[in-house]
Amino acid sequence: MSFLKSFIFNSLNFKLYYRYAKRRFAHFVGLKGRTAWISAPACRTHFAGNQHPESPNRLIAIENILRHTHTWARMQKIQAKPINDIQLARVHTRNYINELENQTPAQGVHKIDDDTYLSRDTFDAARYGAGAAVQAVDMVMKQYAKNAFCAIRPPGHHAHANHAGGFCFINNAAVAAMHAIAEYRLERVAILDFDLHHGDGTEDIFQNDKRVMLLSSFESPLYPFTGTDYQGKNPNIINTPLKAGDSSDVFREMVRSIWLPKLASFRPQLIVLSAGFDAHRDDDLGHLNLTEDDFGWLTQKIVLVAERHAQGRIVSVLEGGYCLDSLAVSVKAHLNALVSANRFAQN
């Protein structure tokens, strides 16, 4: 009888251990493969005024719509850490960073230009946003995630090496690209910017750096009224301006005829997305007529390029998008495509 009890006891222990080990293995595989959502509470603290379109409500709207979808459960949630000074110095000058720190008000806001306001928490929020971009690169390069989305603010693509502008303080996409080049010795990084506005800061930073390809679509003429007279030495910067009223057909043909062939020729080892969603037809800041389906379609095309040349590695950083409803559904479509790219994602 004692033998039987011992046998039953050992059998039950083995079954329990086996189930535990199986769950842990499944968790590890799923976690390692899933899309990473990287954000920080600090990114909601930057405040430029009650009437300013770049508000904390942008991140709240995105998260609210995602929490009601399967996409939310299929992503691993990562807490961002602030960027360090070495990582920041790869993109921005020390004088500029000192200037931001010195201009930060104890209360209220400091006006940098007509659109860009520095509050008490702005620089802290920007450091966490840039830190998220660094972590995203680390995760995809180390295969802890296949791709990553940085739910961050303030945006970054108008930030130059030595000055802020257009709601932007630290150029997150540039930080991601330079971190990948410096830490992982990548030779070819592509940045794709599909924001409503031309990423003048990103273009300026990489105008002489052939290791980086920059493909940029934007409405022209529109702030910052650049992108049509590029004179840098980097031949891998290609601007593809759109005009007011352009919609899906024009945008998709531009991607097929220009972006995809250029990417195929460049063979990027990492793709960084300056993911702006203000080209949506419902966003009042511009006059383009894209829809959330266009952003989902574009992301699917980018995923295919990444699979072919970059081992699937994509880092997406949030830029513009100021109509809360269209921003939320556009990010949802974007993330659906990123999550679906993952062979480990569960249906």
From TrEMBL:
* Any GO molecular function: histone deacetylase activity
Q: Give the GO terms filed under biological process for this record.
A: epigenetic regulation of gene expression
Among SUPFAM superfamilies, the record links this protein to: Arginase/deacetylase
Domain of life according to the entry: Bacteria
Histone deacetylase domain mapped to chain residues: 52-338
Family as reported in the entry's similarity comment: Belongs to the histone deacetylase family.
- PANTHER family to which the protein is assigned, alphabetical: HISTONE DEACETYLASE HDAC1, HISTONE DEACETYLASE HDAC1-RELATED
This one is known as: Histone deacetylase domain-containing protein
Protein species of origin: Simonsiella muelleri ATCC 29453
